[in-house]
Specification:
The chain has 64 residues and is α+β, with helices and mostly antiparallel strands. The protein is built from two helices and four strands.
Length: 64
């Protein structure tokens, strides 16, 4: 299933830092928020709940 996901880079990806990608359509369909390192697309992935994903985004906004 992960090979068919459409991944979207974080809005911070253009700043040259470490970036993540997520699969928004998968999240909308399943409630699972899949996250991976944009520099290692074949590496490990995290599966987060909606609350955990919101927490990750808030953390990035404040500490990014």
């Amino acid at each position: 299933m992960t090979d068919s996901l459409r991944w979207v880079k974080s809005s911070y990806s253009e700043n040259g830092g470490q970036c993540i990608e997520w699969a928004p359509e998968h999240a909308a369909a399943t409630g699972e928020f899949r996250v991976r390192d944009s520099n290692d697309p074949h590496g490990p992935q995290l599966t987060l709940t909606r609350a955990a994903f919101v927490g990750l985004v808030e953390f990035a906004r404040h500490h990014g």
